[in-house]
Amino acid sequence: MTERLRAAFQSHPSPPFSASKFVPGYEDRNTNNEAPTTGEVSRRSSQSSRETKRSDASSSSEDGSPLAQVNLRVGSMTVSRWLTFGHVLFSDVRHELVPVEGSLKRHSILVIDGLDNDDWSFYAAETYPAATFFNLSPRFPLPEELKSSSSSFPLGPLNHHQIQYVSHLNKFPFAPQSFTAVVYRFPVARPEAYYRSILTEARRVLKPGGFIELSILDVDLNNMGNRGRCTVRRLKERINEKTPDTSLGSTADLIVRLLGKVGFTTIKAARVGVPVASSVTRSDSKADEGNDAAEKKKDAPSLSEMMSDNSPLVDEGITKMVSRVGRWWYTRCYENAAENPSGKSIWSDKSLLSESRELGTSLKLMVCCARAPLQRITST
């Protein structure tokens, strides 16, 4: 597994872990989600259909099948864990969540996910059953009648709760000092005031000494070529046309500065490059091009199947999945924040992907953690 990670990422390979323990269950859960059978599923689909269609375009055309989309979402969780060194929660808070026999203490974790789904919080709740997870989402939570019915809709674990939150101008719907940790994943392109509000509220609801964890993607890329620079520049212009005060510099640098300004301490960060396009050797390029049509006709293997296969071809498949996941993250964070008259993703440009592959272009990802001050704060 370590060798696969070295091939996939430009730095910080993660230690091995047992993907087989969680991948199959998530494939089952998300496969069920592809076939709505309840009113809640329909509501979720209608409320996020525009974003989903645009996000799906972040992968190439062969990724449009339900199975491919399930693999992409499962792959997102897998890659997230790889990037945080084999841990779901990577700050020291994870040590406090280990179940202690006879202890009645129960920690609460708040999740704010820019990917706009509950996949990661659901998985985290299953990973840490001794803690309670609250996922902030603009969507309505599942109605009680569906929770108690015999519906085939896959329910989350009992320690997982979805809480509706529709505007950053409002306070989080929790009392001060309610949480042991806050997880802020993939902040989408927004003005500085938006990030400041989220971080201020995060500090308010954290207990003294509580942790905040962040995974932040920047709009600019590493090792961009001419086509990449032009593409990113046009994307920034479209974002600015839609929301003129949106911050278009380094989101990671901005949020780290804001963490200090709102009172967080012990800020630690690590940066990694996620490849935009999987690399192939020149000798293999023509063969790959010749086999593209045949490969598209085949059913894509599930991620769990790839993880259990040690062949070089599967290693290449995992590397491709890493790139697809990274592009999907980027679309969620930045493309969805821009006006898009053509309806096409920037990743549908084969010339851009070819250039990125040749130059080793990568997405700029930062994982970061910090702590709330130990002294108590007064609610305002």
Automatic annotation (TrEMBL):
<protein>
    <recommendedName>
        <fullName>Methyltransferase type 11 domain-containing protein</fullName>
    </recommendedName>
</protein>
<feature type="compositionally biased region" description="Basic and acidic residues">
    <location>
        <begin position="283"/>
        <end position="300"/>
    </location>
</feature>
<feature type="region of interest" description="Disordered">
    <location>
        <begin position="280"/>
        <end position="311"/>
    </location>
</feature>
<feature type="region of interest" description="Disordered">
    <location>
        <begin position="1"/>
        <end position="67"/>
    </location>
</feature>
<dbReference type="InterPro" id="IPR029063">
    <property type="entry name" value="SAM-dependent_MTases_sf"/>
</dbReference>
